[in-house]
Structure formats: C-alpha cells, structure tokens
Design brief:
α1 (2-47) packs antiparallel against α2. The chain contains three helices and three strands, in the order ααββαβ. The radius of gyration is 21 Å and the shape is rod-shaped. The model has no long low-confidence stretch (mean pLDDT 91). By secondary structure, it is an alpha+beta fold.
C-alpha cells in the first residue's frame, strides 16, 4: 500500500504544483497590471495640469511604481496639441522582467502596459 501512495503522489504532485504556481504567477501579474494602471493614471493626472512638465509626469509614475518595487519600466507621454487637447501616458514593463517563473507557462517576450488619456486643463 505504501508503494501505491508514492506512485499517486508522483503522478499528482507535478499537476498540483503547476496549479499552485500558476495561481501565484497570476496573482503577481494581476498586481503588477493594477500598479501599471494606477501609475499611468497618476502620471496623466499630473500631465493635464497647466504648467506641468514631462519630468513631473515621469516623477509621479516613478513614485507610483516604487511602491510595488518595480523598476524596469518605460513611460511614453504624448503631449496635447491645439488640434488634440488630450494628454496620453502609457507605462510599459516587459513580462520577462516581472515573471516569477520565467517561461514555464509560455513565452515571455511581450509587454504589460496601461494607457490613460485625459483632456488637458484649460484646453478649449
């Protein structure tokens, strides 16, 4: 009987560990995605203020990202123009930089991103 339990454990354990690690990876990626959304939103809130600079925006995004300990990200800012009064802030981070398990669940050569668009204050 002891041998049967060992065989059952050997069959079930890889599946069980895959499910557990998948749940952990999903939770981590979900938290990172929400951090990106909040960082882009906070950056865009600064961007729409009159007199704000791109450095102000990137500083605000950095402040939001630092709370989660994320550092290998990029910020793309599209400033408003007279014909397009919208400010756009996009924050990207490579999945390969945040994945806990590397390529265990598939390819890692893509970016997680969040984009926020808001109308510039004082724009007609």
């Amino acid at each position: 009987m002891k041998g049967a339990a060992v065989v059952e454990l050997a069959v079930v354990l890889p599946l069980l560990l895959t499910i557990v690690f998948g749940i952990i990876e999903f939770g981590w990626v979900f938290m990172v995605r929400e951090t990106l959304v909040n960082a882009s939103r906070e950056g865009c809130r600064v961007a729409v203020l009159q007199g704000s600079t791109q450095q102000d925006v990137t500083d605000q995004v950095a402040l939001s990202m630092a709370g989660a300990g994320l550092s290998n990200y990029s910020v793309q800012i599209t400033s408003s123009t007279p014909t397009n009064p919208n400010e756009t802030v996009q924050v990207l981070i490579p999945y390969s930089q945040i994945s806990l398990l590397g390529g265990y669940f598939g390819p890692t050569n893509f970016n997680l991103s969040a984009t926020t668009v808001m109308r510039k204050e004082g724009a007609d």
